[in-house]
User: Fold this.
Amino acid sequence: MIKVSDFKFVIETNTTSYCFRKLNSGQLEHLYYGEKMDAFDGAFEALCPVNKYPAGNLCTYSKDFPDVALENMCLEYSGYGKGDVREPLVVIRNTDGSLTSDFIYHSYVINRGEHIESINGMPSALKPDEQLKIKLMDRQTNVELDLYYNIFEESDCITRFSKVVNHEDSPIEIVRLLSNQLDIFEGSFEFMNFTGAWAREMNVNTTPVFQGKLVNSSVAGVSSNRNNPFTILKKSDTNEFAGDCFGFNLIYSGNHYTCVSKDGFGKVRVVSGINPDCFSFKLNSNEAFFSPEAVMSYSGNGLNGLSKNMHTFVRKHIVRGKWAGKSRPVLLNSWEASYFKIDEKKLIDMAKTAKKLGIELLVVDDGWFGKRDNDKSSLGDWDTNLKKLPGGLKGICDKINGLGLDFGIWIEPEMVSVDSDLYRKHPDYAVCVPGKDHSEGRNQRFLDFTKKEVRDYIVDKICNVLSSANISYVKWDMNRIFTDFYSDSLDNQMEFSHRYILGLYDVIERITGAFPDILFEGCASGGNRFDLGILCYMPQIWASDNTDAWCRAAIQTGLSYGYPMSVVSSHISGCPNHQTLRNTLLETRFNVAFMANLGYEINVSDLSSEMMNEIKAQIKLYKENRDVLFDSDFIRMSYGDNYEWMLVSRDKSKAFVITLSGLSKANYPDCEVKLTGLCDDKLYHFYNIPAKYDIHHFGDLINIVSPVHIRQNSLVHNAVSKFVKMDGETEDIVAKGSVLNKCGVRTHKNFAGTGYDSDVRFYQDFGSRLYFIEEAKND
Ligand code: GLA
Assistant:
């Protein structure tokens, strides 16, 4: 709800209030963002003390307003010049070359329904409840700055974006135009960002905010695995369950920038938007430029509260189309199963076994097109390799469909290999600086999506591929970052990165729009472009090329701060793991993937019958429960040395708990599962599905019980292991939600070197459990 009275502005969501006012001098002073209150009951009086004599050596705004010193005020936007030396939202090079802006209030409008204005050329959040647009005009030039606030009441999110319109007769240059600015009066804060590298995405960092600046940004051309655009500002004493915190994200897939700064008066400013580094944009007379949409949310209920807001926002306002809110097919992907070495026979064998396991979709990853036997060639040549797949895509697709599975493919439409027919014919389509050496990434180059003819070419080509067979899933990959970029279509090369992203959105929109039934999954060497921009077109993203369960737990934990697990896909792969060479139990691998969109990336044709049975049971269990992922709260109970996640259905009738530990400790039998979020008054059944463990896990210990000596890994040992299994423990407790919420459950004790039977928890390195909590009948 937006309330305005006498130049006082209040934005309310279900549990938050956001307030600012117009000063007599024309600027907008930010006053409050936090827990909901009735701001018109005195907040404007309480928060606006008289400020007659600006402190110290501050510059005053103007001689007409000697009491206004912008540097020591909380503001809704800040420009360059006029005394505020903190991070500006906007910097414009005026027609006379000067950089000072002086935007002051002109008017406001509240838009609803079809009158809500959206951003040209970029994705935006769906269905805001209302929109506040504030028009500002520069006091001395004919340049307009519009500030937009979109309200999403249920998810407690507010989005902001800005627009500059040039009403001058000649061009101006936008040096920076960010999307969001939040000034906070004072406090001791910490900044959280999510950083990493290939296969090590989304590490959680927490850094105290000091006088100076902390920056989370990307100039990689993509939102990047180096620094995800999602960030958090939290009070120093805020934890997962209590305390104040603010979350920030951008609906954008390119170079981004978030800066948190603290000034000499203790005021904290967060700005975010397109990275101003290597950016500027020429704006001709009567043209407008939009920033992307930024998202922010406040929670007074700790980080889990903030995540809940972000998850609701992503599910309701970002993900769209046929697959929004809908459970996804369990898939088998060919990549880790056979890399580039695919052929029709292999795929059909895999599909036959997959069908028996309950898998619903076979995805042919890289290697099906051109002469693609490794990563050195053929990107751009999107014609089926008939040596590998003699019947073309249609041939293999029909056969897979005939076996009862859906069929999907991998593509990388943004790229071209120098060794490709496309490059040989159209070197001008590839991004490079003419006459200079190009630095390659994975032996490939970007197609120049700033050019319409290149976009038209690739849209046409990919649409032909997708209509050539009954394709129901596409993995859209992107495997390099920007280096020496340049386009001969541009006068100003500083526009390249942003124009590329605009071109990319045009291409994605046209392709995904032409195939609304296809499930598109975003991917960029794993999580190198995991952002809200991509999620507006593709309802799920491959979070990481790292399928090691222990690493994946960390990556998915990092993602969970800003993104719901319903947009994450997670696969079970072979062991030793291909990225870490680590061995983990199949049980652990499943548990980590269980709370996301499940897939397998393993050579199913080589599975033992025991593994087949275990996987079959996993898939059955997953299918029975996968709907919950789309209507539940994901709660981090602990992470680091061990992980505990809960998924609680919104109606609180069902919950799941996953525990995962790192290295096991000797003589450490105690084990407690903490619980939260259940309905205090409901009665619940807490249980597990007892596992059966292979005796190989106990090694030589078998001789303690065996009447004859058995040599480890001998034929006898292997033969016995087929028939004798060690029973895992059984948990079976009925208790009131209030009890479970307060006490949790102390489960069976871990193996501690002193004896094992079915009352002991077998919990080796990277051990994991999945517990179920279901509403029980009161009888
Ligand atoms: C990237 C993806 C992988 C796989 C390969 C294929 O690395 O992240 O999942 O698709 O490309 O080349």
